[in-house]
Specification:
The protein is α/β, with parallel strands linked by helices and about 350 residues long. The protein has helices at about 65-70, 90-95, 115-125, 130-145, 160-170, 190-205, 215-225, 240-250, 265-275, 300-310, 325-340, and strands at about 20-30, 35-45, 50-55, 80-85, 85, 100, 175-180, 210-215, 225-230, 235-240, 250-260, 280-285, 290-295, 315-320. It folds into 2 domains: about 20-245, P-loop containing nucleotide triphosphate hydrolases (Rossmann fold), CATH 3.40.50; about 250-320, Alpha-Beta Plaits, CATH 3.30.70.980. α6 (about 190-205) links the parallel β7 and β8. α3 packs across α4 and α3 packs parallel to α5 (about 160-170).
Length: about 350
């Protein structure tokens, strides 16, 4: 359980704001070699307090510029940004008290300071003293598996531990809104899993608003309940992860037959399958025959099984191909490029 106390400036109270972060009609144009580049054409979205949201987009889509505009690091051409009701453009200093970020991984920390010294330093400049935050800082070290590295200078850490230190420093500021850009960058499989689990626990217990940007779709699918996809400088999708996956879920099946147990020749199986399911494909190995087929509706699965049973085919496995967020994301970007192209 989180050790954040009621006296600490964190996001553990008042989770009633449906639009804790609101971005409306954001636009930003850069001048590149006398040529105007629209990094953000017209972006609008809102995030409720306590949500963990994934912000996705291909390179050059405008997501990083959007984050920097919210943080006050880039001045937008037009649009409105509010955090907890505070206008970020009119009151950037006040708004910044509510936000923390990991934008460039280990570049967010000082390499000649230890892990513990970095946490104290970055929390301190955000107004969280070591007296108030010590118990929580210790908790972060435990949750992020950094306890053994507490007194190690960051320059002597692996890239994965450097990344986790940057995340710890952002969380130690105890702000209600946190941006995490590529939080699992440089982490091995085990460390990535540990960090994802820690983020889910922290977000659940503290109800912070966390916006995660990552090219690793497994991270987004695992920790976020909702995704905002940016492409071509505008929002093209804003939906729950499960809702998005359901839109792209197919009736694609993979059937593996044993070559040895079939009561019918492979030639007859191929002929019959082509006749009944012309969209099916078959590949052979030494011991098996693999059939992949996309069914037009849910009831065709019965016809498929009946056909194989009539052929006396020895079925080893039948499995449905599952869609994941990466496939859905790539399909969305592809369709958007076709529309804009």
């Amino acid at each position: 359980m989180s050790v954040l106390s009621k006296d600490m400036p964190c996001a553990s109270r008042d989770f009633l704001e449906p639009n804790f972060l609101a971005v409306k009609h954001l636009r930003k144009t850069f001048l590149d070699k006398k040529r105007k580049v629209e990094a953000i054409k017209d972006i609008s979205f809102s995030v409720g307090k306590g949500e963990m949201v994934g912000l996705l987009g291909p390179n050059g889509a405008g997501k990083t510029t959007t984050i920097k505009c919210i943080l006050g690091l880039v001045k937008p051409d037009s649009g409105d940004i509010t955090v907890s009701g505070i206008d970020c453009r009119r009151n950037p200093r006040e708004a910044s008290k509510n936000m923390a970020a990991v934008l460039e991984g280990a570049r967010n920390v000082y390499w000649r300071l230890t892990v513990w010294e970095n946490i104290i330093f970055f929390a301190g400049i955000h107004g969280v003293s070591v007296v108030k935050g010590k118990e929580y800082f210790e908790y972060l070290l435990e949750e992020l598996k950094l306890k053994d590295k507490r007194d190690t200078e960051v320059r002597n850490l692996s890239s994965g531990y450097k990344q986790k230190t940057a995340v710890a420093c952002a969380l130690a500021k105890m702000t209600p809104l946190v941006f995490l850009d590529e939080p699992t960058l440089g982490l091995d499989v085990e460390s990535s899993y540990e960090l994802r689990e820690a983020l889910k626990r922290l977000q659940s217990e503290e109800k912070r608003t966390i916006i995660v940007s990552s090219h690793d779709m497994r991270v987004i699918q695992d920790v976020c309940s909702r995704v905002i996809i940016v492409s071509g400088g505008k929002v093209v999708v804003d939906a729950g992860v499960e809702e998005l996956l359901s839109l792209f879920r197919t009736r694609s099946y993979r059937i593996v037959l044993s070559r040895n147990g079939n009561g019918t020749s492979l030639e007859e199986i191929r002929r019959k399958m082509t006749q009944v399911f012309p969209q099916a494909g078959m590949t052979e190995t030494r011991d098996t025959v693999e059939i992949k087929v996309d069914l037009k509706n849910a009831f065709e699965i019965y016809e498929l099984v009946d056909t194989l049973r009539d052929l006396r085919a020895a079925i080893e496995t039948i499995s449905q191909e599952e869609v994941d967020l990466e496939r859905a994301f790539l399909e969305i970007v592809r369709r958007e490029n076709e529309i804009c192209g």
